[in-house]
Amino acid sequence: MTQTPTLEEIRKAPKVLLHDHLDGGLRPETIIELARERGHRLPSTDPDNLAEWFRESADSGSLERYLDTFTHTVAVMQTREALTRVAAECAEDLADDGIVYAEVRYAPELHTDGGLTLDEVVEAVLEGFRIGSTGPDGRQRIRVGTLLTAMRHQARSMEIAELAVRYRDAGVVGFDIAGAEAGYPPTRHLDAFEYLKRENAHFTIHAGEGFGLPSIWQAIQWCGADRLGHGVRIIDDITVADDGTVTLGRLAAYVRDKRIPLEMCPTSNVQTGAAKSIAEHPIGLLRRLCFRVTVNTDNRLMSGTSLSLEFAKLVEAFGYGWDDLQWFTVNAMKSAFIPFDERLALINGVIKPGFAQLKWRM
């Protein structure tokens, strides 16, 4: 029995990803080709150098600076062909990393500069995921659900919410709101959240990353979020005494008691300053306290990461074994925005057998 999972072994494990941005996971080579076609100027036209530029620019400790790197990726995602290609490659890359189910999010309103309508953007991305999810043998390698994101500093959240509901039977599984948290509370978009609840639709809210507990409280108690994007700052409502005794504040206790999923992205959280280091990331304490924690990539290009690599970093930092990695994975599958029976089928038919084979192989 393998005691400590290696990166190569983790890649073989059936994993689940809930928080991944389409415009944050492009292949550098693709960015360069699409930029050349569009006449967009990049910091570098060498794939390795460009990848390094994205990582260094994102590694600033500032959420706002981190978000600035998306200027270049969004710029090359303005045509139907580009969006379909990027989505297909995204599905291929996730499947190659051993991911069996993923929810990938993007903001349709950011991809209309080339003349596409919001509906055309959604249809192009859905087509790309359909293409990329299918292997050479015609079998489905990965299931991808999409989340449509509204930008919290804009005023189009209702329009995007309606778009998500319109396409929910075609592959859109939920709604999200993202962007700089400070100064743009989720309560500005209450009409969209109320609409989604009336339509029995699922949604997550970026909260507790660039702003503190009020952001989390509003997302849950005012807006009714099903999940929290990041939620790292919930740690501010947890006190650890010198003797190791842990006391949960009212909000932290509510989040744990209600099993509200936390979409944590360790490397990204360190880059944006939401956590000091992987070893000091709140995920260690939150896992010990049995919060509904999930592990995610956020932006694979900017963080130079994959879900397997995120798991490997946690193994190194916290000494996690296969049981821990399976716990995170089952948490994620339980929290996905697809029907219960489909989640259960993946847990019992794919995830648990896959981990069992890895745990017990000699």
Automatic annotation (TrEMBL):
Its cofactor is Zn(2+). Zn(2+) binds at H19, H21, H206, D298. The keyword Hydrolase applies. One of its GO terms (biological process) is hypoxanthine salvage. The keyword Zinc applies. One of its GO terms (molecular function) is zinc ion binding. Its EC number is 3.5.4.4. Binds 1 zinc ion per subunit. It comes from the Bacteria. It catalyses: adenosine + H2O + H(+) = inosine + NH4(+); 2'-deoxyadenosine + H2O + H(+) = 2'-deoxyinosine + NH4(+). Substrate binds at H21, D23, G179. The active site is at E209. The record marks H230 as: Important for catalytic activity. InterPro entries: A_deaminase, A_deaminase_dom, Ado/ade_deaminase, Metal_Hydrolase. Keywords: Hydrolase, Metal-binding, Nucleotide metabolism, Zinc. Residues 14-352 form the Adenosine deaminase domain. It is an enzyme of class 3 (hydrolase). GO terms for cellular component: cytosol. Catalyzes the hydrolytic deamination of adenosine and 2-deoxyadenosine. Belongs to the metallo-dependent hydrolases superfamily. Adenosine and AMP deaminases family. Adenosine deaminase subfamily. This is Adenosine deaminase. It comes from Thermobispora bispora (strain ATCC 19993 / DSM 43833 / CBS 139.67 / JCM 10125 / KCTC 9307 / NBRC 14880 / R51). The lineage of its organism: Bacteria, Bacillati, Actinomycetota, Actinomycetes, Streptosporangiales.
